Amino acid sequence: MLLPLGFLLLAAARFIPGFADGYYNIVYRNLGGIFGSITGIFPFSFMEAGICSLVLLVINWLVKLVLKGKEGTEAVLKYFKNVLMKMISVACAVFFLFCIFSGTNYYREGFAEKTGLEVKKTSASELYDLCEHLLNEATEAGSKLYRGEDNITVFDEKNFSMAREAKAEFEKFAGNYDFMKMGFGKFGTPKPVFFSEVMSYLLISGVYSPYTFEANICTEGPDFLRGSTMMHEQSHLRGFMNEAEANFIAYLACEKSDSDYFRYSGNCLALLYSMNALYAADYEGWYELRLRYPDYLSADMAAQNDYVSAHDTKVAEVSDKVNDAYLKLNDQQDGVRSYGKMVDLLLAYRRSL
Fold first, then answer.
1. How do residues 253-297 score in pLDDT, each as one tens digit?
2. What does each C-alpha distance from 84 to 58, 64, 198 come to in angstroms?
3. What are phi and psi of 191, to 5 degrees?
4. Distance between CA atoms of 293 and 204, rounded to whole angstroms?
5. Is 214 helix (H, G, I), strand (E, B) or coil?
6. Digit-coded pLDDT (tens) for 154-211
7. How far is CA 139 from each of CA 126, 153, 216, 267, 300, rounded to the nearest angstrom?
């Protein structure tokens, strides 16, 4: 029964105008605010604990299946059928919970529409100006930060200190928009993942859990982008599921922060995407700006490239394809390429100032 009910809810969100936003205001804000505030009290990730429990459960089923072999083929088949039915039931329950907790948010009105940003085609010169602005902002904020070995930016406190600061900065930013207010004191605090090394080999820097209303963060890799990743995942918690919009909101939250570190992190995130777009549109302009990178910015970008190259395995490729399929199933037809739309949002924002 849960399977068709879940599909019915998603169909209503997709095809009935205003349903998704109404559901967000009436249901998601209350569910997310309450449960997210409860899970936010604890410093560990409930999502991670749940995955570990699920792995142990599957191992337990497999061991019992092997032991049933001593009782004969009929006992094995009977137990296998029982386990299969349990797995199907669990899968249906998981799908239904995804639908009522988060799935409808994929069909909400976007951040650009809510804030009146006009996304349109633009010239290469305007893109150049955007990149130059982001470079200047990143250079100014980055010049004040602590640097470690090889001139790489280091956040000089533990990851959970960064998480608490990211939560406070995002809460301050979200307070400017009525449609982003939800939760209580502990809602949305990002959770550094214990098994971050596993996430690194999937090339996942962060993941939002719709079942526990948590923003889970990988602690591997260079520090300079982790702040913007925390803001990105908190954007998903507020119901903005499109990846380009979550990146753009992360930039805005960082850009309006009082922290030099978060301003640097947000501008570096935006600079990465914008410079990639400029490389394709105006190579000479890209090359000119690239020569103006200060040593510490070049060192951070090189560290990020090295990190990605070291973890770009077949496992990461499969992870990327799974993520691509997941985005397309949830009506993000560009799949992982939807991250590129962030540049259009950045340009629209610059024009609105």
1. 999 999 999 999 999 999 999 999 999 889 999 999 999 999 999
2. 11, 13, 28
3. -115, 110
4. 27
5. strand
6. 987 777 889 999 999 999 999 999 999 887 777 888 999 999 998 888 888 999 999 9
7. 20, 12, 29, 9, 12
Tell me how long the chain is: 353
Verdict on whether the full-model pTM lies above 0.85: yes
Tokens of 202: 């999937």
Residue 337, classed as helix, strand or coil, is helix
Spatial contact of 216 and 48, defined as CB atoms under 8 Å apart = yes
Domain-wise residue ranges, the chain: 2-107, 112-352
The confidence band for 300, taking pLDDT boundaries of 50, 70 and 90, is: very high
296-327 in b/e form (b: 16+ CB < 10 A) is bbebbbebbeebeeebeeeebeebbeebbeeb
Nearby residues of 296 by Cβ (< 8 Å), 6 or more positions away: 142, 143, 145, 147, 151, 152, 153
Nearest to 237 by CA among 89, 75, 31: 31
pLDDT in tens, 111-170: 999 999 988 888 889 999 999 999 999 999 999 998 988 899 998 777 788 999 999 999
Structure tokens at 225: 């982008």
Task: Give the torsion sign (CA, 163, 230, 26, 49).
Answer: negative
Whole-angstrom distance, CA of residue 124 vs CA of residue 141 = 26
CA angle 9, 233, 316 (to 5 degrees): 95
Q: Which two tokens stand for residue 334?
A: 């560009």
Cβ atoms of 231 and 189 within 8 Å: the answer is: no
Give the three-class secondary structure for 196. Answer: helix
State the residue for tokens 């410093």: 43
Place of tokens 């309450």: 34
- Mention every residue, 6+ apart, whose C-beta is less than 8 A from residue 310: none
Beta bridge partners of 209: 214
Structure tokens at 163: 């998480």
DSSP 217-268: E---S-GGGHHHHHHHHHHHHTT---HHHHHHHHHHHHHT-S-HHHHHHHHH
- Please answer whether residues 340 and 273 qualify as being in contact, where contact means their C-beta atoms are separated by less than 8 angstroms: yes
Calculate the CA 165 to chain-centre distance: 18
Distance (Å, rounded) from C-alpha 272 to C-alpha 270? 5
